[in-house]
Design goal:
The protein is α+β, with helices and mostly antiparallel strands and about 210 residues long. The chain is about 30% helix and about 20% strand. InterPro entries: Lambda_DNA-bd_dom_sf (IPR010982).
Length: about 210
Amino acid sequence: MEMANRTLTVDVIAALTYWPGVIWGGQKNPPDPVDLTVLPSFFNEVLQELPWWNRDWNVSHVEPGVPLEIESDHHGHPSSFTEVSVPGTVGSSGGQSLPFVAKVGFAGDQLIRFQAKIGDVVLGPAVAPAGRLEPHPFARVLTGLMDLRGIPVGVMARETARSMSTIHMLRSGRHNPEPFLTREIAKVLGMSEADVRVIAGLDDDSRQ
């Protein structure tokens, strides 16, 4: 979902930062009540922008959110944005309902990240262009680990007995991290196979 250039209203920010179940050093305890009814309208507005979204479904109820990260310039704990998890319910005119959770990230009054989970389906911003598969999440981690260790693609290819094109595809997320290859990659990275398997999302059933 494209969230660029969306400005949050004062009321929405107040509702997103209303955390009566959390005690932290910048908020009155308990905080003064705010109007949470602005959030269903805000979430529905965002979801309605999706061309494939079923207009019969609407967010009908929300509860106070829980902060996942709090914008702060506190020494030793700087953060450039706030991210909040807001639970609730979506319903249809036919009386059906599903649990709903929104993860909202914002800096100041600018929305920078939005993800919705409806039932067991997660809706979030895509990484790849429309019409292309999403890259495997191992790609970003592998690229970072190789770069931090100064391991060129050619060296990784040689040490794992793979072609450079295979390593390039792993780094771009176009090739899944197979168990045998993961084992070889772990050796080159100087990490345990178990750690790399966890990072790659390989469960015990995939061991060969």
